[in-house]
Amino acid sequence: MSGDKKEYHFGAIEDILRESGAEATEPDRTEGMDGGILLTSGIHVYLPYHEINVHEGYFCCMEDGQLVPLRFLTVIYDRTDKEYLYDAEENFVDTVHEWLKGQCTREQLEQEPCEIKGIREEIVYGKGIQTGGSGRNPCGDGTACRSAGRHHGKR
User: Fold this and answer.
1) Which pLDDT value is given to residue 125?
2) Residue 137 in contact with residue 56, Cβ under 8 Å?
3) Rounded CA separation 27/40 (Å)
4) What predicted TM-score, i.e. pTM, was given to this entire model?
5) Inter-CA distances, 92 with 33, 36, 118, 126, Å
6) What span, in angstroms and rounded, lies between the C-alpha atoms of 74 and 59?
7) Which range, of 21-25, 34-38, 83-87, 89-93, averages the lowest pLDDT?
8) Smallest Cα–Cα separation from 89: which of 78, 98, 81, 79?
9) Averaged over 78-83, what is the pLDDT?
10) How far apart, in whole angstroms, are the C-alpha atoms of residue 152 and residue 144?
11) Half-sphere exposure of residue 51, counting CA atoms within 13 Å on the CB side?
């Protein structure tokens, strides 16, 4: 990676994005999928080792001319953001781990360097990378963060 890009640990990146309030430089992306619409954020996380981009997204339906979110998803695209690879109703680390089918442990994945792309300014994270958290969604209320996911693989 180039020296002018800020690297983060992948395990901390979701917390960093949520706390930063970063503004996207690229528009959100919509595409038809499974009888609905997949809406993904213009902000994404690039994992250079795996050459993938990871986005937050929603699976939506159209009601009265408006997008209505049905499920939160983590979506994986190839490094050029052109080819959809995978999605699941899980956090970033768990989704990528499932997609990799055990090629590395969750702990190894959490430590991998990554970059935030599609933002106006570099994010400065007050806690620092080492103490930024695991990236796991701590909710235990039965929402998508604890679901089994839609592990469909490439469509």
Assistant:
1) 54
2) no
3) 9
4) 0.74
5) 20, 22, 17, 21
6) 10
7) 21-25
8) 98
9) 90
10) 16
11) 4
- What percent of the chain clears pLDDT 90, i.e. is strictly above it? 49
Measured distance CA(91)–CA(56) in Å, rounded: 9
The residue behind tokens 């909710």 is 139
Q: Percentage helix, strand, coil, to 5, in the chain?
A: 20, 35, 45
Q: Which residues contact 133 (CB under 8 A, 6 or more apart)?
A: 11, 12, 15, 127
Is the Cα dihedral 133, 135, 141, 147 positive or negative?
A: negative
Determine the pLDDT at residue 57. 93
- Tell me: pLDDT of 91 over 90: yes
Mean pLDDT for 88-111 is: 95
Cβ burial, residue 49 (10 Å; 0-12/13-18/19+): exposed
How far, in Å, CA of 82 to CA of 111, rounded?
26
Which two structure tokens, joined as six digits, stand for 82?
A: 């052109």
When pLDDT is averaged across residues 51-66 and rounded to a whole number, the result is 92
Of the candidates 59, 37, 40, 33, the one whose C-alpha atom is nearest the C-alpha of residue 118 is: 40
